[in-house]
Amino acid sequence: MARTPHKKTARRRWSANVVLTLGLVVLAVVVIGGILVFDRSDDGPAASGETLVPAVAHRLSTAEGDRVTLVEFLDFQCPACASYYANVTRKLEQDYQGRITFVPRNFPLDMHPLAMPAARAAEAAGKQGKYAAMYHALYDGFSEWAVAGQDVNSDVTAAIAKFEQYATTIGLDLARFRADMTSAEVQAVIDEGVRDGRELQVTSTPTFFLNGEKFEPTGQSFGDVDRELRAKIDEALAG
Fold first, then answer.
1. 100: Cβ–Cβ under 8 A, 6 or more apart, which residues?
2. Which is nearest to 186 in space by CA: 145, 143, 125, 233?
3. Where would I find the H helices in the chain?
4. Which of 56, 61, 143, 170: CA 20 to 30 A from 129?
5. How many whole angstroms separate alpha carbon 81 and alpha carbon 104?
6. Where does the Thioredoxin domain start and stop, copy by copy (predicted)?
7. CB-based contacts of 13: which residues, under 8 Å, 6+ apart?
């Protein structure tokens, strides 16, 4: 699936200015380095609906009968996921609202120390019916909490303070939000996402499945990938 190779990401330093222009920088890496931002691992097994979209999964868009379902395994602190959000999925979510079922699943990577707290923040917001609002706040505010100067941020206390700020802005009960963030129930939902992802041979983020089939783009830019994904979605909608 399309993604930035994480071994290279771990060796790079992401400045605040880079993060603010994630899409342009990733595209520059593709052109200058002669590499694609996607890891072309072998296709995983066909995914069952229950594995991809369990009852606890949140939806950014819902279509009647879930006839066309797009699932994204993501890591909120992953630069590639943030770039996809900025260049592909945010607009796709808007353009296909109500026409497809769009399901984000948690797959926090160990290399990102704030990925798990961010996933807990999103799931805790979901307990109050505000998952989508927190999902957008986390990605729209990526440069505020995910990076620190030229480094990947590892300050959990500062990140949680920022998440609580987002929680207040979107109208959550802050005391409940704090309790849910540390609850076993929220952690179990995240763990289920990781477990399902591994069963489907997800190894990096973002990884997409469209109607159970792993999406493997061939494009050399986000514009190419966006067109490929939309073409597949349109074909599924027409079928």
1. 61, 63, 68, 69, 70, 233, 237
2. 125
3. 6-11, 16-20, 22-33, 49-52, 79-84, 90-95, 115-126, 131-140, 142-145, 156-169, 174-181, 184-199, 222-238
4. 143
5. 11
6. 41-238
7. 150, 151
User: Tokens at residue 36, please?
Assistant: 């694609």
Note the pLDDT tens digit of each residue in 23-62: 433 433 333 233 233 343 444 445 556 779 999 999 999 9
Q: What is the pLDDT of residues 118-169, one digit of tens each?
A: 999 999 999 999 999 999 999 999 999 999 887 889 999 999 999 999 999 9
The yes-or-no verdict on residue 199 having pLDDT over 70 is yes
Bridge partners of 152? 147
Q: Which residue segments constitute the domains of the chain, with CATH numbers given? A: 6-238 (3.40.30.10)
Name the H helices within 46-173: 49-52, 79-84, 90-95, 115-126, 131-140, 142-145, 156-169
- Indicate whether this model's pTM tops 0.85: no
Residue 112 has which token pair? 């990102």
Instruction: Provide the 10 A C-beta neighbour count for residue 166.
Output: 23
* Six token digits for residue 94: 């808007």
pLDDT at 12 over 50: no
Residue with the bigger pLDDT between 82 and 1: it is 82
Q: Is the dihedral of CA 204, 207, 212, 216 positive or negative?
A: negative
